[in-house]
Amino acid sequence: MSVMDPQRSAIVMVFDRLGTGYLGPYGGTWVETPALNRLAASSLLFEWAISDSPRLEAACRAWWTGRHALCPDPLADDWSLLAMARESGIHTVLLTDESAVSEHPLASLFEDCHFLRPAPASMAGSLEETHLARLTAEAVDLLETLSSPTLLWIHARAMQGPWDAPLDYRERLRDDDDPVAPDRVDPPCYILAEDHDPDERFGITCAYAGQVGVLDACLDVLLDAIDSSDIGRDALLLLTSPRGYPLGEHLRLGEADPQLHEELIHLPLLLRMPHGDRAAQRCTALGQPPDIGATLAEWFGVVGPATGLGGISLLRPIGEPSANLHDRAASVLDGQQTLRTSTWFWRQAATDGLYVKPDDRWEVNEISNRCEEITQAMGEAARQFQQLAALGQLDRLAPLDQILRF
Question: Do 271 and 161 belong to one domain?
Fold first, then answer.
């Protein structure tokens, strides 16, 4: 099978637990993210990328097989982005500090795997001493050795790992009369009390924001290295995350009793095309992790995943009607299921919940008792999605009822 362009490469940057709420390109104003802003200015930004499952192993499966979390597990000879790339002569390289990624069954399909073992956790004295800076240095060195065609996949633990940002990265976010930022290194993982001290949550938020500051500084270095590398100048560059980090929006911190809400399942997704194509454009259609596998397959000119598995290439012209992409996005986790359309968010846990989108960003106002018809229709659409996903036939989804689209 031939490649569309023998010099075509792609670089994927994954930063775990990077939520959209603290990023400038997604409306965040509290934390300065100049490198992310710079990337967004030259990229096609997807405003509503929604996780199909916040489990890391499910995210890897979605990226590398184009399968939604509700679809059955692939068989040994089913489609895989990594296998198709290797068969087409594309060099596939994985760099990660996350053992769950390097040890994922599909990761063995990478030709080269570079694993950076995490150092003992402690607060860094400078940016250069942080673990993410070490991973960035490894990526910069690796870029100098690669030539096209290459798929370079960089997966950083980021906020899933120790919060080792220097203390001044946390302190710069507080005013003189604010509480001192905590010096904790372990990511918080517990449920806040209903009557918790607001200073407790504020301090944790400062610590998280400090990590975002470190990430942005490292991204700045990485973007410069990519732009000056042999493969980077003409490569497709993609930045995303498998999940966000709850910071008490629904009393949850980190992985404690995860709930499928905005802060966990709304993902950053930026695609930078070579030569400024589609720069500074925004797409409001819904996207999901399986789309990344389909997108990279189209980029490299290889056969993509079956359309019924959920992945749709994001390289389609965004000027076309959004129906060309997804009109709904489903997420699942431990008996919970959600469905998102352009105007509604339905969540089923112990009971059904309904929220208006995009107005109610953090899902504060639950209105199912005032919109029973909408709630029932969303529940039925979610059940249809689940049934067809189990059969690998998501391309047979019936059009959404009009009341769910407007």
Answer: yes
